[in-house]
Design goal:
Shape of chain B: flat
Order of helices and strands of chain A: HEEEHEEHEHHHEHEHEEH
Helix content of chain A: 25-40%
Helix content of chain B: over 70%
Structural class of chain B: mainly alpha
Strand content of chain B: under 5%
Largest sheet of chain A: 6 strands, mixed
Low-confidence stretches of chain B: 97-130, 378-382
Number of strands of chain A: 10
Mean pLDDT of chain A: 84
Oligomer: heterodimer
Largest sheet of chain B: none
Number of helices of chain A: 9
Number of domains of chain B: 3
Largest interface: A-B, 45 and 35 residues
Bound molecules: adenosine-5'-triphosphate, magnesium ion
Radius of gyration of chain B: 36 Å
Order of helices and strands of chain B: HHHHHHHHHHHHHHHHHHHHHHH
Chain lengths: 271, 520
Amino acid sequence: MNEPNGQKISNSASAGTSAIAKPAGSSPTPGRPVVIRTLGLNKIYGRGDAATHALAGVDLMVYRSEFISIMGPSGSGKSTLFNMIGALDQPSSGRILIDEVDVAQLSADELAFLRCRKIGYIFQQYHLIAYLTALENVTTPMAFAGLPADRARKRGMELLDLVGLADRWDHRPIEMSGGQQQRVAIARALCNNPMILLADEPTANLDFATGQSVLEILQRINQERQVTVVCSTHDHRLLSMCERVFWVRDGEIERVAHRDEMTIKLGSIDE
Amino acid sequence: MTRPLIEIGEQKRLGFFRCVQMVMISMRYRALRSLVTLATLALAVAFLMISGADNMITMRVRVHASTQLAPQQLAQRQLVRFVKPDDINDVLRSLQVGQIGQVGGVGVEAVGGVGSVGGGGGGAWSPRSSHTQVLDEYRAWLGGDIAAEQQVSLAADIAVQLQAWETWADRLSPAARAALLSDASLVSRMDQWSDSMQWERLIDRLDQWGFKLPDGEASAKHFITEDWPKFRETFVAINTGHARAIAAISDIDLAENSANPDVQKNIAAAGFVISQDQWTQINELLHWSAVRRQINEALRDTVLRARVGQVLGMKSKEVGLERVLGEIDGANIGEVLANTLAESGFSIDAQTIVALAERYQREAVLLSVLGEGQAIEIGEASNNKITLRMKLLLGLSLLVCVVGVSNAMLMAVTDRFREIATMKCIGALDGSIMGLFVIESTCLGVLASVSGVLVGLVLVVIRSTIGLGALLWETPGLASGLLLAAGLSALAGLLLAVLAAVGPAWMAARLAPMEAMRVS
Ligand SMILES: Nc1ncnc2c1ncn2[C@@H]1O[C@H](COP(=O)(O)OP(=O)(O)OP(=O)(O)O)[C@@H](O)[C@H]1O
Ligand SMILES: [Mg+2]
């Protein structure tokens, strides 16, 4: 768990491009473990004429303690991809491997364990539980993980403090703004110290300053605890933080850019 | 292979206490919705409770009413018998109803039974209800006289035998049948054959034709030459008894002389076994009918009718015995009526009038409980009728309850698929989610069942008290019946509530989280 990640910079140079070229098995960066890998991922919503091809053959790899951004226009399939790699939905075809284990092979029990303690989710629609207060929303995953209630409350308050909502701990979701709900969702995602953090547009509803602080939190847990962060966004500030950017369009990965390449053409990022 | 980065262990179930805590929070949050669901459930349970308890009360009260009326009715029938005896052939026909389907076997078995009848009767036949009714009526009429009862029982056994013979004779070829019975009926032929000379001839003739007797020769002979004459004797005795009783009482006024020991002796000598209790019943009946006759006579007078009408506040045209008796509800009106009658020269004291009115009103209530034109049956035929209606009604209300409860619970649960999905996203086990829903629906179910049963109980008691009055409270076994109805309704409500909630919740919990999210 705590093994140092010395190869982070030296090996990432060729990772971006090769992730598309030959994803299956043959990692171009030996020694750097792959945490998330998808193989020929397809997702079709609906059937017949109404069928939408939300994902069309996505192959990607995310390395351990990487900070990844997923960018793409609205409706390009980012959220769908999130649900897939978070083991929250069933792909129409293709495989998802988390730490080289196919999630399709996990039992319901193991999946619950994975979702509860190893992956933190920040949903675009927050998905907070309506009848629980901010603090209760944050402590619920800890209850599922078997943490005693008092310790859960203590940690919950710390996390709410971290996202700047300590004074709103007993507000219910409907009594909070979108940005505040999003920050509760972030606190909830962090509560069980996940190995992977999946954030679907975590700054979309936040003002500049709050968004900045959220991004700093994400960056900090990425750097301090080697948490792998996958983050979809339209926020250009993120581009300077992350190692690689996946560009998604119409359910396919159109392009993978490394940070070094991006700093050069940051000015022309919108296409 | 190195140690995996992401170790996967075992996820724990959410503890019971935590589940209860979350359920409380959730129910408090949607207090209004929970209340509506609760009310719907309670209503459905109350409905089930009302129809169940109502049926139970109706049944118990009916049985109670019929046991209350039975002695009086029996006395009535006995009175009728003193004047007009049953046709002995009718009695025989009623007794003859046996198990036609297995005549051969019954024949043999019944012969064995008859052989031992001298001591106590009782063959292996199983009588049908009309048979039982007649037997029961005769038993009640005989007032527990063992010897007489044995006679009736013997007669019933022999009647079954006779039927076996009849069936056997029916199976013969037309020619053989004609030769055996000629124009006579089986009964009159039996009378002939029971003569030992005729018996020999019958056997000879049957031998010639190669026929076998239904139960073998020895037992057939026993039946024809010994049992059959006994059978005839019994009924001749009963018939004669009737005739003698009629002769003994036809020229005296039974109403005035029923308490006379000589009259009672006469009737006993005529073959009627009547206990002292039954005599009391009969005397009472005669007494009250005399009083009624007296009042009826008095009311024929137009002037008196007009006066009584004034007292009771009705038109003189409407004044009749039944109406008057129905109106009297206390000593005061009885007094006034007695005075009115006395002024016209009829002397009936107020107490008697009030007592007669009470008796009449109670009888009217009992009869109304039993239904219009419903004979008091001592057998179980009427009970079966009630049970069928009861089953139908209960089935219907159970259906309403099922639909009501499952609809309310389904709505409450499908509303929350999103919540189930969210819980799964943040790592809830299917079992934890089920725990939450089982606890919540059990809470709702228990609360709804208790309140529904209480509401139903109050309503049903109020309703029945209005309809039945004092009769309700004197009916035995009411409390235990109500308790049973309450328990069953509550149990049904609780089970339905839990099942209707757990079913859809289980379906949602088994889906992948985002699939469940899309369902809602
Ligand atoms: N439940 C669904 N049923 C049918 N089609 C769906 C469903 N969910 C998503 N889609 C379709 O799949 C495609 C990808 O949707 P997705 O939500 O992944 O887009 P996105 O990239 O997250 O967009 P945004 O930036 O607006 O959040 C869209 O065309 C969308 O219409
Ligand atoms: Mg999205």
